[in-house]
Design goal:
The structure is a homodimer of 117-residue chains. The first copy, chain A, is mainly alpha-helical. Chain A has a single domain (13-116), classed as Arc Repressor Mutant, subunit A (Orthogonal Bundle), CATH 1.10.10. The first copy, chain A, contains 6 helices and 2 strands, in the order H-H-H-H-E-E-H-H. Chain A has a two-stranded antiparallel sheet with strand order 1-2. The longest helix of chain A has 19 residues, at 86-104. The radius of gyration of chain A is 16 Å and the shape is globular. The model of chain A has no long low-confidence stretch (mean pLDDT 90). Chains A and B meet through helix 1, helix 2, helix 5 and helix 6 of A and helix 1, helix 2, helix 5 and helix 6 of B. The structure holds a DNA duplex (30 and 30 nucleotides).
DNA sequence: TCAGATAGGGATAAATTTCTCCCTATTGCA
DNA sequence: TGCAATAGGGAGAAATTTATCCCTATCTGA
């Protein structure tokens, strides 16, 4: 694993939430798990643009940050299921607020993003 | 400037808001501008951990995405003020929700983040 | 018997973001 | 006269994140 060389600052709420949600796919992972897509392979199919590797890495971080738990079923072929922890569930409304704002301003956002590319 | 080689996907609201808010300091910039810290030098003092260069770059992007406007006063030494656009103002409640969640779970977050380092 | 599904890690490359250092310009102040 | 404040861009390095490719293992079904 890559080891950080710069220590993050954890001064305010925005710093703190940033540390746990900042990652290209983390918010989406939480959202899909919330919607009931729990198995790694399902998540990978839901987010085909992300490489399997990064999804695993980000899932590991979410687990370390206690937002999700990972349950391994001792079967073959292997089966793993992720679930939101109670703590993780508390962040879902915030993610919903993000998504809602994005949806409400969909056309304008698409427009300004494409213009700025 | 660096030119993107991977086209972002803009399928859902989460993708869209991600495009405009994803950046190490963008959320904080919007928040401080919202609080009335409008001049670049003020913002730099508010966010001393960010290099001046990156703040300028992220401010430029926020402006391109129409979340803020930049007003130049023709005086010497130069004076510039950023303000939220009407569009930018609509995202403030979402940022407030992020910060509030971070504040509410401050202790736990600090704990899990430090443990995972 | 061989391909595919399942889960995931290691090594390495590529992409992206952020940082550092340097340069431009003008005014006021010591 | 020389330095600080103001605003900000260029070049190149460093840090960080994400992608690619390859390997392990076992069972099911064609």
């Amino acid at each position: 694993m890559y080891e950080k060389k710069v220590i993050p600052n954890l001064n305010c709420g925005l710093d703190l939430i940033g540390e746990v949600l900042y990652g290209k796919w983390k918010i989406r992972l939480l959202w899909f798990i919330h919607q009931g897509h729990k198995r790694p392979s399902e998540l990978q199919r839901k987010i085909p643009d992300a490489s399997r590797r990064v999804l695993n890495m980000q899932l590991n971080e979410l687990e370390k940050h206690e937002l999700i738990t990972r349950k391994i079923y001792p079967v073959v072929p292997p089966k793993v299921e992720y679930s939101l922890t109670e703590f993780g569930k508390t962040v879902i409304p915030v993610i919903a607020a993000l998504g809602q704002w994005g949806d409400e301003h969909e056309d304008r956002l698409r427009d300004v993003i494409l213009k700025s590319l």
